[in-house]
Design goal:
InterPro entries: ACP-like_sf, PP-bd_ACP. The chain is mostly helical. The protein is 43% helix and 0% strand. The chain has a single domain, classed as Non-ribosomal Peptide Synthetase Peptidyl Carrier Protein, Chain A, CATH 1.10.1200.10.
């Protein structure tokens, strides 16, 4: 089952990369290698996620690339930055 955070991540990636849909994006999709998100696009993705998820407060000093190599690991990282409970 896809969580609310996963859905928001996939929707933000689809919009950012101007994709037709997110059907090809899975939890194991690699952010950099499969999707081609460089540091600039990652910054845009994080900003888009903060807009989509009002309870999200990202602390840039705590970000490490190895923490978000896949969609699944990015989802876990985003969940750790949430300031209140979100629907599953």
């Amino acid at each position: 089952m896809t969580s609310h955070i996963d859905t928001q991540i996939i929707d933000a990636i689809v919009e950012l990369l101007d994709m037709d849909d997110g059907s090809s994006i899975t939890p194991d999709t690699r952010i950099e290698d499969d999707l081609g998100l460089d540091s600039g696009l990652l910054l845009e993705l994080f900003m888009a996620l903060e807009e989509r998820l009002p309870a999200l407060e990202i602390d840039p000093s705590e970000l490490r690339p190895e923490q978000f190599s896949t969609v699944q690991s990015l989802s876990a990282l985003i969940a750790s930055f949430m300031k209140e409970d979100v629907p599953a």
